[in-house]
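Hi support team,

I'm opening this ticket because the web form for multi-chain structure prediction keeps timing out on my end. I have pasted the exact lines I submitted so you can reproduce it. The total is 578 residues across two entries, so I didn't expect it to be a heavy job. Is there a limit I'm missing, or should I split the entries? Thanks in advance, R.K.
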Amino acid sequence: MSTVPAKMQRVCVIGLGLMGGSLGLALRQRGLAAHVVGCGREALLHRAAELGVIDSGSTDVGEAVAGSDFVFLCTPVETSIRLMREIAPKLKPGALLTDVGSTKAAFAAAAREVFGDEAHQRVLPGHPLAGRELSGLEHASSDLYADCVWTLTPLGESAVASHETLRAIIRAIGARVVDVTPEEHDRTLAYTSHLPQMLSTALALTLEDAFGAGNPALEIHAGGLRSMLRLAMSEPAMWEQIAASNPENIAAALERFESELRKLRECLGNAEFRKKFEEARKFAKELRN
Amino acid sequence: MSTVPAKMQRVCVIGLGLMGGSLGLALRQRGLAAHVVGCGREALLHRAAELGVIDSGSTDVGEAVAGSDFVFLCTPVETSIRLMREIAPKLKPGALLTDVGSTKAAFAAAAREVFGDEAHQRVLPGHPLAGRELSGLEHASSDLYADCVWTLTPLGESAVASHETLRAIIRAIGARVVDVTPEEHDRTLAYTSHLPQMLSTALALTLEDAFGAGNPALEIHAGGLRSMLRLAMSEPAMWEQIAASNPENIAAALERFESELRKLRECLGNAEFRKKFEEARKFAKELRN
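Hello R.K., no limit was hit. The queue was backed up. Here is the completed structure from your submission:
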């Protein structure tokens, strides 16, 4: 592992929301790419240029990817799959395609279908575990990826030079690369990301159902409730695509949680309750350490 | 409502953990009490004196309350009920007894039983919605109650001078007083505090069950999981008492949540899913505003 990352020449960032915008800022502010071309709607391109996210832009994906050495799909997962099919014939030979989608098995399968035997060389799917309940270019930050885990799900085992460059660049923007298979990624994320999201959303729906929005009784709450409702503010359009691309794993995680919650309810007021709280506390402390 | 709060003369704080310790600091640093006497174990009294939490201390509750004008029970709710019975005969005539317990109906019922017709004058149960996942005197802070909601659950309607002094003092340490009946308090808190706690604890148990503690796959997580697991680190002994003193309301809130979560699971991947996410997002944004 080199400590001086290779510099990328022409980089294309498709999708200029929180993820793509933050990526452009991180690459440009750290001098990790000679030229960043953005792809998005006209107004977004103007704003991205103003904010220093891109060097140039195009509303046409074919034009944007032409001549780029690295292409980052920074759109929700179903959109990225559709765009991959569209840009595949237009990619420069040797260019590496990656993405930042929240699920990986569907994207990986589509990459194998589109690129066949070349899929491993030409596509290295990724998922930086960064993000906020706030979305959009206006919230982009060059530090969004600092200290985050950036998973990569290689589609084969042989060494590819462009993959090493991508890994070095990811490290240079402050993230930690973790390799995992697409299937293991999606199963794990169902528990560590999709389940917590569902709980926060269902908590909001439960409170609304029990009190009605704006009920003054709801003033009687503390920081604990606020932190448990933060994820519920996430972007619904993004979660619709995550749910659609990982339904079996999410359903399994939810069923397992439902069973744990029922068991906790059934031991309200008996000695088992305290034991469960001790166990959960130990686990949470270790994980958060 | 006076803007210059009356000063309390002798105040007794029973229980020198996070809540009692922070109360002593807040009263003494703001000059709101002429003398604060603490009650707790020997070693705790020494440490509390060192930290500036108390002026004097006693390990004996009878001795500690003797001559005090205001007595704050800062122990878990079942302990506070037991201590109220014990100190009732030793309270100075005209002294006001209050508490900081997380549930109120059981404490209020015990107060009526112990003090009969005088309960309203002599006891004003309270619950500041402050706290942290960290417990104990060492984490006490004079700002713990700043900007929090401090609920009071009066046991009757007539005006009592000592109640007004207590309200003024609570405001002087930065909290906002909200009056509510003990029953409404416990029903509301089951949703805004106890339910979120149970979800965080059950989430930790689910992850442990699915992966086992220390599984490296669990590294693949982001800030969302961390915030959803914060409450799971709370003190089990305190939650055991909260659960035991509010089981029906907690069970009802859990059942309602279980139903919402099941509905969310059943619409994974259909149009209803997005609608639910939009609704939850709107609610969470309004509540957190």
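A quick check on our side: Chain B touches chain A through 88 residues (CB under 8 Å). Let us know if the file doesn't open in your viewer.
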